[in-house]
Amino acid sequence: MPATELPGGARVRSVWDDAIERDGQMLVLAGNEVSLLSPVATALVHAARDGITLDALGARLVEDFGAPEGRDPGEVLREFVTALVQRGVIVIEG
Predict the structure, then answer these.
(1) DSSP annotation string for 39-82
(2) Helix and strand tally (H, E) in the chain?
(3) How confident is the model at residue 94 (pLDDT cuts 50, 70, 90)?
(4) Is 45 exposed, middle or buried (0-12, 13-18, 19+ CB in 10 A)?
(5) With 80 as the cut, is the pLDDT of residue 78 above it?
(6) Collapsed DSSP state (helix, strand, coil) of residue 4
(7) CA–centroid distance for 44 within its chain
(8) Is the pLDDT of residue 2 over 70?
(9) Helix axes 39-47, 73-86, angle to 10 degrees
(10) In terms of Cα–Cα distance, which of 26, 37, 78 is closest to 57?
């Protein structure tokens, strides 16, 4: 199932081999891929380190950063998760 179609109760977990953080951003090595994460993506992967449902993850990010203006927070979250799954930084559990 694509991440964009995940139900709110789906669990995601972040995985990476090494990372360097600076100024709210994170340079992360996952397998052979190196990705520079924005502050929102950095917060997302930290929150998902031990596994978390999409609903709980979305609530945490809205609390920390506010709701995206003019967009559904769940839709934006799924876009982030999809991109991070493609980079090998997030896995969908189960």
Answers:
(1) HHHHHHHHHTTT-EEHHHHHHHHHHHH-PPTTS-HHHHHHHHHH
(2) 3, 6
(3) confident
(4) buried
(5) yes
(6) helix
(7) 4
(8) no
(9) 80
(10) 78
- Side by side, the strands of the sheet bearing 25-30 are 18-22, 25-30, 33-37
| Residue whose token pair is 């502050």 | 39
Q: What is the pLDDT of residues 5-56, one digit of tens each?
A: 888 899 999 999 999 999 999 999 999 999 999 999 999 999 999 999 999 9
DSSP state of 17: S
Q: Which two tokens stand for residue 21?
A: 């953080």
Is the pLDDT assigned to residue 76 strictly greater than 80? yes
Both tokens assigned to 1: 């199932």
